Amino acid sequence: MTSERARMSEPPESWCYLSPHLDDAVYSCGGLIRAQTDAGQKVEIWTVCAGDPPAGPLSPHAESLHARWRTGADTTTIRRAEDGRAAACLGAGFRHLPLPDALYRRGRSNGTPLYPAKEALFAAALDPSEEAAIVWLAELLVREVPAATGLVCPLGLGGHVDHRLVRLAVERATPVHRRLRFYADCPYAMRPETRGALDPPAGFAPSIVPISERGIRAWIAAIVSYGSQWHVSWADETAIEVELRRYLRPGGLRLWCPASP
Hints:
single chain; Rossmann fold; seven-stranded mixed beta sheet
């Protein structure tokens, strides 16, 4: 028992990052992922909400976002390709899970959008029908993430329903142990209006991980790989670099790890 506890407390040699959307884990942890792959560790980024939209018309909000992103009917295909390029910048593998983005999910009984407007995507409560998705993801994590692999999950900062769904599934699937980490969702964690709303789970404490200059450069390159997305949050590449460096000023990137007993 003692040897098993000691083994589980050792740093993992492989990592699985859970990304609600096709950019979240890279925006939030890109420099750390580069450091881990440079050290010879295997890293995979699993995007949960990477599935194709169901058949039928999109909500006006979804249509407006597609127009803003200039992606049209090929939005999901384009974004998955962007994600592959971003992962390559960091030396990481990737996996795209089949759940559609909340932007596209519909009620099973009436086929209407579950979240027809921006306000609904950041509502206080998830639609009750999301329980099935939470159970599906929790069971997949138990079944397919090896016990020796470090699992890195978003805190859900910013309140988007997909970010909260991922955290709920992780907390249901994974008891507090040495292999679980939480990251602060970026760019929300970089912004004064949202960065103070951190809600780490009980039993976890922040740890600062230094990020090298090489890591920062790779992080920026990975972010701009999301050609349809990054301009929504930053004016140009200089703005990305300035905000990243400001975010890292406490000495590095914050991860929430199980507190020492």
